[in-house]
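User: Second chain of the day. Same drill as before.
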Amino acid sequence: MTSADDRRAALEAVLMVVDRPASTTDLAIAVGLPVDQARHLLEELAAEYAGAGGAPRRGFELREVGGGWRVYSHPDQAEVVERFVREGAAARLTQAALETLAIVAYKGPITRGRVSAVRGVNVDSVMRTLANRGLVEEVGSEESSGAALYATTALFLERMGISSLSELEPLTPHLPSGQTLEEIKDQVEPRP
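Assistant: Same format as last time:
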Protein backbone atom coordinates (compact mmCIF):
# COMPACT_ATOMS: atom_id res chain seq x y z
CA MET A 1 0.00 0.00 0.00
CA THR A 2 1.28 3.45 -0.82
CA SER A 3 1.77 6.13 1.79
CA ALA A 4 -0.64 9.00 2.42
CA ASP A 5 1.90 11.33 0.78
CA ASP A 6 1.93 9.12 -2.33
CA ARG A 7 -1.88 9.15 -2.52
CA ARG A 8 -1.97 12.94 -2.10
CA ALA A 9 0.71 13.33 -4.77
CA ALA A 10 -1.27 11.10 -7.13
CA LEU A 11 -4.40 13.22 -6.64
CA GLU A 12 -2.39 16.41 -7.20
CA ALA A 13 -0.91 15.01 -10.40
CA VAL A 14 -4.34 14.16 -11.81
CA LEU A 15 -5.75 17.54 -10.75
CA MET A 16 -2.96 19.28 -12.67
CA VAL A 17 -4.11 17.80 -15.99
CA VAL A 18 -7.91 18.02 -15.77
CA ASP A 19 -9.42 20.71 -17.97
CA ARG A 20 -12.82 20.68 -16.26
CA PRO A 21 -13.95 19.79 -12.74
CA ALA A 22 -13.42 16.08 -11.99
CA SER A 23 -15.83 14.29 -9.68
CA THR A 24 -14.63 12.76 -6.44
CA THR A 25 -15.58 9.35 -7.83
CA ASP A 26 -13.55 9.85 -11.04
CA LEU A 27 -10.54 11.05 -9.05
CA ALA A 28 -10.85 8.11 -6.63
CA ILE A 29 -10.92 5.64 -9.53
CA ALA A 30 -7.98 7.35 -11.24
CA VAL A 31 -5.74 6.98 -8.20
CA GLY A 32 -7.17 3.70 -6.88
CA LEU A 33 -8.73 4.95 -3.65
CA PRO A 34 -12.11 4.46 -1.99
CA VAL A 35 -14.34 7.48 -2.67
CA ASP A 36 -14.58 8.54 0.99
CA GLN A 37 -10.78 8.44 1.36
CA ALA A 38 -10.33 10.44 -1.85
CA ARG A 39 -12.84 13.05 -0.60
CA HIS A 40 -11.00 13.32 2.72
CA LEU A 41 -7.64 13.84 0.95
CA LEU A 42 -9.15 16.39 -1.44
CA GLU A 43 -10.59 18.35 1.47
CA GLU A 44 -7.20 18.22 3.21
CA LEU A 45 -5.45 19.48 0.08
CA ALA A 46 -7.99 22.31 -0.32
CA ALA A 47 -7.45 23.39 3.30
CA GLU A 48 -3.66 23.15 2.96
CA TYR A 49 -3.65 25.28 -0.20
CA ALA A 50 -5.86 27.86 1.58
CA GLY A 51 -3.25 28.17 4.34
CA ALA A 52 -5.02 26.24 7.07
CA GLY A 53 -2.98 25.04 10.04
CA GLY A 54 -0.21 27.57 9.48
CA ALA A 55 0.68 26.31 5.98
CA PRO A 56 1.73 29.08 3.62
CA ARG A 57 -1.07 30.31 1.38
CA ARG A 58 -0.55 29.39 -2.25
CA GLY A 59 -1.18 31.26 -5.49
CA PHE A 60 -3.75 28.62 -6.36
CA GLU A 61 -6.63 26.90 -4.65
CA LEU A 62 -8.52 23.65 -4.95
CA ARG A 63 -12.27 24.11 -5.25
CA GLU A 64 -15.22 21.77 -5.56
CA VAL A 65 -17.45 23.37 -8.18
CA GLY A 66 -19.67 22.17 -10.99
CA GLY A 67 -19.90 18.68 -9.55
CA GLY A 68 -16.17 18.17 -9.28
CA TRP A 69 -12.74 19.32 -8.14
CA ARG A 70 -10.33 21.57 -10.00
CA VAL A 71 -7.28 23.73 -9.29
CA TYR A 72 -7.82 27.46 -9.90
CA SER A 73 -5.56 30.46 -9.57
CA HIS A 74 -6.21 32.29 -6.31
CA PRO A 75 -8.56 35.28 -6.71
CA ASP A 76 -5.99 37.50 -4.94
CA GLN A 77 -3.66 36.88 -7.91
CA ALA A 78 -6.19 37.81 -10.62
CA GLU A 79 -4.32 40.97 -11.65
CA VAL A 80 -1.02 39.12 -12.09
CA VAL A 81 -2.66 36.25 -13.99
CA GLU A 82 -4.56 38.66 -16.24
CA ARG A 83 -1.35 40.57 -17.05
CA PHE A 84 0.49 37.32 -17.81
CA VAL A 85 -2.29 36.06 -20.10
CA ARG A 86 -2.53 39.40 -21.91
CA GLU A 87 1.24 39.61 -22.44
CA GLY A 88 1.39 35.94 -23.41
CA ALA A 89 -1.24 36.47 -26.08
CA ALA A 90 1.07 38.94 -27.81
CA ALA A 91 4.08 36.64 -27.55
CA ARG A 92 5.26 34.50 -30.42
CA LEU A 93 4.02 30.94 -30.68
CA THR A 94 6.31 28.19 -29.44
CA GLN A 95 7.61 25.50 -31.77
CA ALA A 96 5.13 23.06 -30.19
CA ALA A 97 2.25 25.46 -30.85
CA LEU A 98 3.34 26.00 -34.46
CA GLU A 99 3.57 22.24 -35.07
CA THR A 100 0.17 21.67 -33.50
CA LEU A 101 -1.37 24.52 -35.48
CA ALA A 102 0.05 23.11 -38.72
CA ILE A 103 -1.49 19.70 -38.00
CA VAL A 104 -4.89 21.27 -37.32
CA ALA A 105 -4.62 23.40 -40.47
CA TYR A 106 -3.66 20.51 -42.77
CA LYS A 107 -5.67 17.68 -41.16
CA GLY A 108 -8.61 19.52 -39.56
CA PRO A 109 -11.20 19.08 -38.41
CA ILE A 110 -9.26 16.78 -36.09
CA THR A 111 -9.49 15.60 -32.50
CA ARG A 112 -6.89 16.48 -29.86
CA GLY A 113 -6.17 12.77 -29.56
CA ARG A 114 -5.24 12.51 -33.23
CA VAL A 115 -3.08 15.63 -33.01
CA SER A 116 -1.34 14.07 -30.00
CA ALA A 117 -0.80 10.86 -31.99
CA VAL A 118 0.81 12.76 -34.86
CA ARG A 119 3.04 14.84 -32.56
CA GLY A 120 3.76 11.97 -30.17
CA VAL A 121 3.05 14.12 -27.10
CA ASN A 122 0.03 15.39 -25.19
CA VAL A 123 -1.23 18.59 -26.84
CA ASP A 124 -4.01 19.58 -24.41
CA SER A 125 -2.28 22.70 -23.06
CA VAL A 126 -1.07 23.73 -26.52
CA MET A 127 -4.59 23.36 -27.93
CA ARG A 128 -5.94 25.51 -25.07
CA THR A 129 -3.33 28.16 -25.87
CA LEU A 130 -4.25 28.13 -29.56
CA ALA A 131 -7.96 28.31 -28.71
CA ASN A 132 -7.36 31.18 -26.25
CA ARG A 133 -5.52 33.05 -28.99
CA GLY A 134 -8.42 32.47 -31.36
CA LEU A 135 -6.42 30.39 -33.85
CA VAL A 136 -8.35 27.11 -33.44
CA GLU A 137 -11.88 26.37 -32.34
CA GLU A 138 -14.15 23.45 -31.59
CA VAL A 139 -16.30 22.77 -34.65
CA GLY A 140 -18.26 19.70 -33.65
CA SER A 141 -17.67 16.18 -32.44
CA GLU A 142 -16.51 12.95 -34.00
CA GLU A 143 -19.44 10.59 -34.56
CA SER A 144 -17.65 7.42 -33.52
CA SER A 145 -16.07 8.64 -30.27
CA GLY A 146 -17.85 11.88 -29.42
CA ALA A 147 -14.44 13.61 -29.12
CA ALA A 148 -14.36 17.31 -29.95
CA LEU A 149 -13.16 18.23 -33.42
CA TYR A 150 -10.95 21.28 -33.91
CA ALA A 151 -10.28 23.42 -36.96
CA THR A 152 -8.50 26.68 -37.66
CA THR A 153 -10.39 29.97 -37.45
CA ALA A 154 -10.91 33.01 -39.65
CA LEU A 155 -8.28 34.76 -37.49
CA PHE A 156 -5.77 32.05 -38.45
CA LEU A 157 -6.51 32.68 -42.15
CA GLU A 158 -6.17 36.42 -41.60
CA ARG A 159 -2.82 36.04 -39.82
CA MET A 160 -1.58 33.72 -42.57
CA GLY A 161 -2.71 36.21 -45.22
CA ILE A 162 -4.88 33.67 -47.03
CA SER A 163 -8.59 33.39 -47.65
CA SER A 164 -8.89 29.60 -47.43
CA LEU A 165 -6.90 26.58 -46.29
CA SER A 166 -6.63 25.46 -49.91
CA GLU A 167 -4.07 28.24 -50.34
CA LEU A 168 -1.64 26.57 -47.91
CA GLU A 169 1.52 25.28 -49.52
CA PRO A 170 1.37 21.54 -50.32
CA LEU A 171 3.25 19.38 -47.84
CA THR A 172 4.23 16.52 -50.14
CA PRO A 173 7.43 18.17 -51.48
CA HIS A 174 8.66 18.57 -47.87
CA LEU A 175 8.00 15.00 -46.74
CA PRO A 176 10.87 12.52 -46.38
CA SER A 177 11.47 10.17 -49.32
CA GLY A 178 8.42 11.37 -51.24
CA GLN A 179 5.84 10.02 -48.75
CA THR A 180 2.27 11.02 -49.43
CA LEU A 181 -0.14 12.31 -46.85
CA GLU A 182 -2.10 9.06 -47.21
CA GLU A 183 1.00 7.01 -46.30
CA ILE A 184 1.59 9.16 -43.24
CA LYS A 185 -2.09 8.98 -42.31
CA ASP A 186 -1.85 5.16 -42.45
CA GLN A 187 1.07 5.32 -40.03
CA VAL A 188 -0.71 7.44 -37.41
CA GLU A 189 -4.36 6.41 -37.82
CA PRO A 190 -5.25 2.75 -37.52
CA ARG A 191 -7.58 1.43 -40.18
CA PRO A 192 -11.02 0.28 -38.92
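The chain has a mean pLDDT of 84.

User: Great, on to the next one.
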